[in-house]
Amino acid sequence: MDYWKYILRANPETADMLVAYLADEPFDTFEDSEDGVNAYLPARAAQDQAEVQLADLQQQFEFTWEKTFIPGQNWNEIWESNFPPVIVGSFCAVRADFHEPAKGVKHELLINPKMAFGTGHHETTWQCIAAMEHLPLQGAKVLDYGCGTGVLAILAAKLGASEVEAVDIEEESRRNTAENCTANGVSNVTVRCGTLADVQGRDFDGILANINRNVILDSLPALYSMLRPGGWLLVSGILLQDESIVSENAATAGFEKKTRTEKGNWLCMAFWRMMNDE
């Protein structure tokens, strides 16, 4: 797939803000850079819409941007030059097939991104991986909502989940997740391209949702209905400044917040669906 690479030059805090605002369509992938952040737009997407969005954001934040065309055949080379292994303590390592095997970790994931978000580098995915060490995944039925590369779905399977359903609105992400499941020897992940309406499972024990604030806010009632009483919801892709609005909306939907972590300007929060609700 061909992409437009938008090079956004901004200070780190502003770069995080931009990712939060641009994480909805049509941008689908982001990577940190020394000068700010790079945002990737599929060549088939509406450039005019994206650039109107950037112009609007320039009224709120101080940043500059330029774009360059990235042919699809160059993508693997770009990832190989910008994708170092990710180490989450002694718990988990995420690497591509061109890296040497990791040492001294309990779990190792082989992830070849191919233009899908979720390699573990961003603070949101890193925090989700760290949080999963402490979630009750053994024997659990799990949904990965917005699966990207499938890194969280694959880790859930390796941590003992009995079945995992993974969904993403991008067909490229669906294919990439399926490929990465095969590469990791994981056979109990069902991958779909679509929205929550396309998810077949119900009564999940846990849901992983590393997306963005707006999608999470819009999805909270549906996610609540898809969890069994006592089930858990792990959310990330939320800026520190948005903690109150997400927490309040989650409580309104029937969730109880249990844990929170922060890394950089980003939050990861775990909620439980109360046991005594109907």
SSE layout:
Blueprint: E1 3-9, H1 12-22, E2 29-33, E3 36-42, H2 47-58, E4 64-70, H3 75-82, E5 86-88, E6 92-95, E7 107-110, H4 123-132, E8 141-145, H5 151-158, E9 163-168, H6 171-183, E10 189-193, E11 204-210, H7 213-226, E12 227-239, H8 243-253, E13 255-263, E14 266-273
Parallel strand pairs: 6-7, 8-9, 8-11, 9-10, 11-12
Antiparallel strand pairs: 1-3, 1-4, 2-3, 5-6, 12-14, 13-14
Helix pairs in contact: 7-8
Descriptors:
alpha/beta; 8 helices; globular; 278 residues; four-stranded antiparallel β-sheet
What does this structure look like?
With 278 residues, this protein is an alpha/beta fold. The protein has eight helices and 14 strands. Strands 10-9-8-11-12-14-13 form a seven-stranded mixed beta sheet, with helices on both faces. It has a four-stranded antiparallel beta sheet with strand order 2-3-1-4, with helices on one face. Helix 7 links the parallel strand 11 (204-210) and strand 12. Helix 7 packs parallel to helix 8 (243-253). The protein is globular, with a radius of gyration of 18 Å. The termini are far apart. The model has no long low-confidence stretch (mean pLDDT 89).
